[in-house]
Automatic annotation (TrEMBL):
Post-translational modification note: 4'-phosphopantetheine is transferred from CoA to a specific serine of apo-ACP by AcpS. This modification is essential for activity because fatty acids are bound in thioester linkage to the sulfhydryl of the prosthetic group.
Protein name, as recorded: Acyl carrier protein
Species classification: Bacteria, Bacillati, Bacillota, Bacilli, Lactobacillales
Key words of the record: Cytoplasm, Fatty acid biosynthesis, Fatty acid metabolism, Lipid biosynthesis, Lipid metabolism, Phosphopantetheine, Phosphoprotein
Organism for this UniProt entry: Leuconostoc gasicomitatum
Cellular compartments annotated: Cytoplasm
Keyword Kinase recorded: no
Length: 79
């Protein structure tokens, strides 16, 4: 799976979770500051990402941006 494919799927999850427009989500989108995600929101996003990609993510305090999330997914898919 390419970085673009991973990003597109992550973006779709974020757009649906936070009722955003697609152009509101980029690789540099800060999940907390730009889309006001709280810890419960992030937990729900991570659960959805795990389900959609069929992976298991460790606790992810270091996920701040969409790029961070894409990188975590890519690393898990490669493992």
């Amino acid at each position: 799976m390419t970085d673009t494919e991973i990003f597109d799927k992550v973006k779709e999850i974020l757009v649906n979770q936070f009722d955003l427009e697609e152009n509101e989500v980029s690789l540099t989108t800060d999940l907390t500051n730009d889309i006001d995600a709280d810890s419960l929101d992030l937990f729900e996003v991570l659960n959805r990402v795990e389900d959609d990609f069929d992976i298991k993510l460790a606790v992810a305090e270091d996920i701040k941006t969409t790029q961070d999330l894409v990188d975590k997914v890519k690393a898990q898919l490669a493992a």
